[in-house]
Write a structure and sequence with these properties.
It is a single chain. This protein has 7 helices and 11 strands. The longest helix is centred in the N-terminal third of the chain and has 19 residues.
């Protein structure tokens, strides 16, 4: 299937959503030989995981094209954060089969996340939310899912692994809408970084991304 949604150049960011309907071979043919995606999926046993990985690169490639640049592939740093090869653009990737997301920003590190609504989120809410955030969510499964999604996007934007969601990622209370905006803060030692985020619902999933 072709791209299902492009949110173009909001504050220098382009978000591409892709719904997987292709075979593995069809997706690989959409990428340049220099991307080395076949090597990346070589050790992956589960077909869905392989498809998500390849399709996410296709989504990133589509977003890169929106900036008029060529796509040469993705590499990951020591923290597992993805980076474009031979490009100064910043990227983030998420997948929740059958949908994948690729977010590209021309100047700043960014984060995107996809989440599907599940009752499990109620059981773990106290592990990732502060007291203020718990009050804001008030047990609502849709708000809880979105808060988790937002914190995942913030975590990816920060790009390191020393963060505790409950302590280091803070979300300002906001009204839950079908499509909306919110503000998040990453607090890690002396590092303080505020992010503006947008979110929206697509089919049975919620999408959140930094701008």
């Amino acid at each position: 299937m072709a791209t299902i949604r492009i949110d173009g150049n909001k504050k220098g960011a382009v978000l591409v959503l892709w719904k997987i309907e292709e075979t593995e071979d069809e997706l690989i043919k959409m990428l340049p030989p220099t991307s080395d995606v076949t090597e990346e999926i070589e050790g992956m046993k589960f077909q869905k995981r392989r498809l998500e990985t390849i399709a996410s690169r296709v989504a990133v490639q589509q977003a890169v094209f929106e900036f008029g640049e060529a796509y040469h592939g993705v590499r990951k740093d020591e923290f597992g954060k993805p980076h474009l090869i031979d490009s100064n653009l910043h990227i983030s990737i998420s997948h929740c089969y059958p949908v994948v997301a690729g977010l590209v920003h021309q100047a700043y590190p960014v984060g995107v996340d996809l989440e599907r609504r599940t009752d499990k989120i109620r059981r773990i809410q106290q592990k990732f939310l502060s007291e203020q955030e718990l009050l804001d969510a008030n047990g609502d499964i849709d708000k809880l899912t979105l808060l988790w999604c937002i914190k995942e996007a913030l975590y990816k934007a920060f790009g390191r692994k020393q963060l505790i969601f409950k302590e280091h990622l803070e979300i300002t209370p906001f009204e839950l809408l079908e499509n909306g905006t919110c503000t998040g803060l990453v607090k890690n030692g002396s590092h303080l970084q505020q992010y503006d985020l947008e979110y929206f619902h697509f089919e049975d999933q919620v999408v959140a991304y930094t701008l």
